[in-house]
Design brief:
- The chain contains nine helices and nine strands.
- It starts with a strand and ends with a strand.
- Helix content is 46%, strand content 16%.
- The protein has a six-stranded mixed beta sheet with strand order 2-6-1-7-8-9, with helices on both faces.
- The protein is of the alpha/beta class.
- The protein has one domain (2-246): P-loop containing nucleotide triphosphate hydrolases (Rossmann fold), CATH 3.40.50.300.
- Helix 1 crosses helix 9, helix 3 runs parallel beside helix 5 and helix 7 packs across helix 8 (169-185).
- It has helices spanning 13-24, 31-44, 53-61, 91-100, 104-120, 130-134, 148-163, 169-185, 207-221, and strands at residues 2-6, 27-30, 65-69, 75-79, 82-83, 123-127, 140-145, 198-201, 244-246.
């Protein structure tokens, strides 16, 4: 079983994906973590993430990356058996990851790695092209979006929790704008609404409310298949209604 969750930075993909994976009894797969880890390794080896494509591709094909799910539904990222979960979340690594992901050879290597992980586990995969490129045949796809200022405030809080510093909101918005531009206009696997994805605006809702809406959607899709989503809590009709719609085109 593969569920994909796509969307720009700051819409709550990671938090929602972890909660949904735990509810469904599936593995959480952060595809962005694979690119961040590659970018982190490249920076440590002084490989230019923009121009040195050949060395990047070689590094991608032999990247000693391991993703381990945690009991709480999270993910531990290991590089050469070293925990780099926090180290790959800096702004420097984020920008390098956006640049690294522009190269077709790099994306091909990362997509292969992500598919191998999914073949071994049922996954809830989140990223920017999981439903359009990595797992185009996934039976359940979601695309999350949110107001730009809301996204910036969420990112600001995430950075404060990770590093104890809270950058100015204007600075965070500029960084998100830069990342959005790279993601939406890259030649391979650009950020887009996948065909058949259910769109949810998360601006005014908590992660738990979004997950309940997702579970309801999944239960409706698979209500005639016994045994599916046995780990999911029953859908509660008291949740706030979250507007969603299916996209029939990319």
């Amino acid at each position: 079983m593969i569920v994909t969750i796509d969307g720009p930075a700051g819409v709550g993909k990671s938090t929602v994906a972890k909660l949904l994976a735990k509810a469904l009894g599936l593995m959480y797969l952060d595809t962005g973590a694979t690119y961040r880890t590659l970018a982190y390794a490249a920076l440590r080896q002084r490989i230019n993430p923009i121009t040195d494509v050949k060395r990047l591709a070689e590094l991608a094909r032999r990247l000693p990356l391991e993703l381990r799910p945690t009991p709480a539904g999270g993910l531990v990222v290991l590089l050469n058996d070293r925990d780099v979960t926090k180290a790959i979340r800096t702004e420097e690594v984020s920008e390098a990851a956006a640049q690294v992901s522009q190269h077709p050879a790099i994306r091909a290597a990362m997509v292969q790695l992500q598919r191998e992980l999914a073949n071994r586990h049922g996954v809830v995969a989140e990223g920017r092209d999981t439903g359009s490129v990595v797992f185009p045949q996934a039976p359940i796809k979601f695309f999350l979006d949110a107001d730009t200022r809301v996204r910036a405030k969420r990112r600001q809080i995430e950075l404060a929790e990770l590093y104890g510093t809270r950058p100015p909101i204007v600075q965070v918005q500029e960084q998100l704008h830069f990342r959005d531009g790279l993601d939406r206009h890259r030649r391979v696997g650009p950020l887009m609404k996948p065909t058949g994805a259910t769109v949810i605006d998360t601006s005014r809702f908590t992660a738990q409310q979004v997950v309940r809406a997702m579970l309801h959607h999944i239960q409706q899709r698979f209500r005639h298949r016994s045994g599916f989503a046995t780990h999911a809590r029953p859908y509660r009709r008291t949740r706030p209604r979250i507007a969603s719609r299916s996209s029939s085109s990319g």
